[in-house]
Amino acid sequence: MFKLLIVDDEEYAVQALCEKVAWAKAGIEEVFTAYDAEEAREILSQTAVDVIVCDIEMPGENGLGLLQSIREQSADTEVIFLTGHASFSYAQLALQLGSFSYLLKPVKYDQLLEVVREALAKLSQARELKQQHETYSKYYGLWQSQKPLLVERFWQDVLAQRIAPSPAKIAELMETYSIEFKPGSLLMPIMISIERWSKEFSIRDEEIVEYALRNAASEIIQSGRPGIVLQDGHGINLVLLYALQDRPVEREELMQQCRQYMEACSKYFYCQVSCYLADPTPIGDLTKVYYELLNMERNNIRSPGSVIWNEPGVRSTGTAMPIPWFSELAVFFETGKKEEFVRRLQDMFAMLREQPLLTVETLGAFYHALLNLVYNVFHRQGLSVQHLFSAKEFSDEAYATKNLEHLEAWALKVSTVGMDRLYPPQSDKLSVMEQIYAYVKEHLADDMTREDIASFVNFNPAYLSRLFKKESGISLFDYILQERVEKAKQLLADTGLKISEIAEMTGYGNFSHFTKMFKKVTGHTPQEYRKHARIED
Question: How buried is 58 (Cβ within 10 angstroms: 0-12 exposed, 13-18 middle, 19+ buried)?
């Protein structure tokens, strides 16, 4: 006999599934219930469950996160997802890679029972095979389930420079994880930048779609080639192709596959993306090339939805070491955070002073990176650097890169004078974040999009989203929702306007959608909130 766990944050839904489905007909002996992922994990830690019927959208951790944690522990449980979003049918195939099936609410009880029967049949067959090879299957299955996570973690560590780039160490780890890549071979990185969503998603929905986007990238871009599709620690999606000597990567073919992928993203996943590619590079240069691709994305404000190649000669081919933290420095500079910028810059030069093999190429790489940053930011603001610096102090590369002390003094002067010009002390000029906050407050009644805000501050949309979340701690979508709900609360409490009028004044043309979003944030409908506010007064 089998055991089943139902996971859903809606109590009535759990009760209906317990009472209306004839679980005994499928051989279910016990039915457990949980109302969130944490409670489900607690039950799973105490009881061996055969099948889980799980809602995919729940407060806190969603069903997909629960599935991932289950797979990390054991593959001997089948998961059937339920969702109330009909528009998520495009994600069904991607999610089935990790779950047994995917059904739309309201679910038909007979259909659910039949799917559970199929899951149990599959589970029984797997257990019979496991009994035949108990010892081998136990350890091999555990390794296989963990291997993709370990391989992804390996490349994340390489990008973040948490692994010493010695050939011996890299070779040892690759052999351990059975990675189909030799230390002497080359890597071809492809960065996928999500620039615009053509449909409004919650943060949980975006996570689900991005999961599907990575699976699609594996199918279309990787297309059977050795390599991996991963998300790094900053939420950036990457494809790493192993450019093996016996399986070279054809440039035109790859660019065409990127275009096909972009078309699929637009057609099936409601988003516009760009692909940033670089030539095959040694693993020791991977972090440097990765930051170059990030810089290409940040500066791409004129060609959205493009396949862009980091052409040979654009980056240094010398022995310059990667410049750590430069993307973070760029954020501080563009947002006018002078103290944080100076402190991080000083930390970076302190680290450079400890490098035994520091070369002039490294100094030149930093010089050009900072020069490019200042030029781009001033250009976007309609300012000229020529009126701010003399030609010698600003663009005399030989002087600035003569030694580390010269470069540090030059960088501090150029950056601090530049930020004082962009954001004068005690001036009325708003920082980038202040401009975003002001724009959102002034356009709460409008059909506001991320692209509108990016155009207003003259930023790349994908870069704007990451900058905003890094600076504020929440996503741009959640901030707009938060501001709209706060304004609605004030209007509900202080005015006698109709709720439909308040919905329009806060950017919701659809009354039911306004009610849903308001309750999502406050836990109450607008009518309930107005009633409580008047009672308190």
Answer: buried
pLDDT band at 217 (very low <50, low <70, confident <90, very high): very high
In whole angstroms, give the CA distance from residue 422 to residue 166: 42
Q: For residues 514 and 217, give the distance between their C-alpha atoms in angstroms, rounded to a whole number.
A: 35
Number of H helices, E strands in the chain: 23, 11
Lowest mean pLDDT among 243-252, 338-347, 358-367, 412-421: 243-252
**What does DSSP say about strands 271-278 and 307-310: parallel, antiparallel, or unpaired?**
parallel
Rounded to 10 deg, the angle between the 203-217 and 251-268 helix axes is 150
Take residue 525 and report the two structure tokens written for it: 């409908």
Which DSSP category does 322 fall into?
P
| Res 239 pLDDT > 80 | yes
Query: 3-state DSSP call for residue 369?
Result: helix
In a 10 Å sphere around its CB, with 0-12 CB exposed, 13-18 middle and 19+ buried, how is residue 444 labelled? Answer: middle
Of 123-132, 169-178, 221-230, 444-453, where does mean pLDDT reach its minimum?
A: 169-178
CA 286 – CA 159 distance, rounded (Å): 7
Mean pLDDT of the chain: 82
Q: What are phi and psi of 101, to 5 degrees?
A: -155, 175
4 — pLDDT class (breaks 50, 70, 90): very high
* Residues found in the chain: 537
Contact 434, 468 (CB under 8 A): no
SS3 (DSSP) at 272 = strand
Cα first-last separation, the chain: 58
Is pTM beyond 0.70? Reply is: no
Tens of pLDDT, residue by residue over 266-322, are 999 989 899 999 998 888 888 889 988 988 887 675 577 899 998 754 444 445 556
Given the structure tokens 């396949």, which residue do they identify? 307
| Rounded Cα gap, residues 432 and 381, in angstroms | 11
* Amino acid at site 86: A
Residues 341 and 415: beta-carbon distance below 8 Å: yes
- Angle (nearest 5°) at CA 497 between 492 and 499: 65
Coil/strand/helix, residue 75? coil
Q: What is the DSSP string of 380-445?
A: HTT--STTTS-HHHHH-HHHHTSSHHHHHHHHHHHHHHHHHHHS-TT-SPPPHHHHHHHHHHHTTT
Q: Which residue has the tokens 């409008």?
A: 446
E-assigned strand segments in 225-345:
227-231, 237-243, 271-278, 281-282, 307-310
The reply to whether omega before 59 is within 30° of 0 (cis) is no
The model's pLDDT over 53-96, given as tens digits with 9 standing for 90+, comes to 999 888 888 888 888 888 887 667 899 988 876 655 545 643 65
Adjacent-strand bridge partners of 192:
237, 275
